[in-house]
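Suppose a colleague, Dr. K., hands you the sequence of a protein chain of 317 amino acids and asks what its three-dimensional shape might be. Before reaching for any lab equipment, you can write down a predicted structure in token form. Begin with the sequence itself:
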Amino acid sequence: MLVPRHWEDNGELPANHEPPSAGRDDQPSPLSSPLCLRECAYAVLNPLVVDTADWDDLPSEPLVTGNVDVRPHLLPQLIHLAELPAETRLALAERIEQHRQRGVALFCALLDSRSPAERVAQHLKLHLEQRRPGDKRRWWLRFYDPCVFRHLCWQLDADRMDRLLGPIDAWYWPDAQGHWHCRRHRSDQPSGVPHLLLDRAQWARIDRLALLNRTLDVLELAEPELEQDETLWRWVDALLERAERQPLPDEDDRQRYVEQAVRFHPQIHTHPTIHARLERVREQGISYTEACADLDDARMASLAAELTGPDRRQEAP
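The predicted structure, expressed as tokens, is then:
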């Protein structure tokens, strides 16, 4: 989700075992795009995924920051929806749906704010570039990406989320099904600290976001009935962190580790057969994927069944 001061034009950015908690109580039922369009004065568009011809008729300004040397038309764009006639604004709902059917979000976000465009733009620019503790470089935070923002809502505490929103009263982002979700300010009082000031643990979670999203996509294909919600996201992130500590340095190996726990049994890695393969990885230096090459789904299900009994509850850790 982050890159140092340079930018990668392909849009690909490098990337506590607690029980998962319930979803946030400030998340209402998903909304439709026409409702959001009526309420919101601004939108954010990612020109790396949307063709110029599909948005060059909209009033926009590039979010140009001081330390990223990139052509403005490749940077995130703040769309001034309030400058459009009401009918034109509502007609964008059809354009949004056409893009969704192609697997693309026309708008990364719709922003409800009473603040002038200059203030909203300056606030977004401030947060696009971040610093890590002990690192003089600036890092690009793709919080405008819906696949990033949905996780920041549970990864950051309420105060930091309010700082991220700043003059924005409500931030709406789309999911793959075309529903819009909302995050509002928790406090009516402006924060005295404008910057996020992320600590090392928060950076570690953000660094895992690319792999987290990739793993969630794989799980959605393998287990379509699995509900994709904050509870699952927290659990998968905790499993990825545990896989790092094994240690499993390869991302494909960490993804395999997570899939096994989510698809077959939360404690699958305590089974002697799986534990032995983790030991082989440590002792022989082979990949975990290679060590588990002979374990197909049927064999994994059989191992999971051996862990399930009256005194071994099959539940998420």
